[in-house]
Amino acid sequence: MLSADGPRMHYRTALVGTGLFLVGLTSSAAAQPKPEPGMPQVDPHSAAGIFGEHGQLAIMGEAGALFTHTSVSGRGSSTTFLFRPAVDYFVIDHLSIGAFTGIEYSSAPGGSTTTYGIGPRVGYDIPLSERFSIWPKAGLSFNSSTAKLDAVTVGGFTTPESSVTNTALAFNLYVPLMFHSHHYFAGFGPSVDADLTGSPKATVVAARLVVGGWVF
Question: Which long-range contacts (CB under 8 A, 24 or more apart) does 175-179 make?
Fold first, then answer.
């Protein structure tokens, strides 16, 4: 013969078990890292979610190349190549400060231009998904450009080869879309380099590739 307390005991046990389950589920949810206000909801343990944490040091090289062909008067082709190594440190989550140096070489019919630059920059990484983020960076650079002009012969008169050096302070902006894989990343996006001083002033709008990795 079953006692009336039997069903009550099972009911109480079920209630206690359900309560413990709900408490554990709530505690687990509370323990999960929450996205920062205003930031996209990205898994903080994913490759893009981990990148940009306080204390990380990112080391990279930015490169760009442009090849064009000019058919006017059979002048041939022109080439521009840029390489810019850089180091960026995240002082707080997502906010980076860094420094870069680089060389840009442009060759065209009649001469060439070589530019060396160095300067500081600041950036802010915004995760978009588990693999992708956007990392805008802006800075200033001190540039030294040397333009070399080839010797030219016109009507039997030859103008000798010459060179002109120009120094300038420039504003630099780079907004790459980043792909992340563990401690490595690659990105591609538009860039603007505009002289603020010097004469003549130059503004270069281009697209560049960046490849690198991070430590710590």
Answer: 175/134, 175/135, 175/136, 175/137, 176/134, 176/135, 176/208, 176/210, 177/132, 177/133, 177/134, 178/48, 178/51, 178/125, 178/132, 178/133, 178/134, 178/135, 178/210, 179/131, 179/132
DSSP SS3 for 155: coil
Instruction: Quick: pLDDT tens for 58-73.
Output: 999 999 876 655 554 5
DSSP H or E stretch at residue 13: helix 5-31
Q: How far apart are CA 195 and CA 202, in angstroms?
A: 5
Note the pLDDT tens digit of each residue in 163-189.
889 899 999 999 999 999 989 999 999
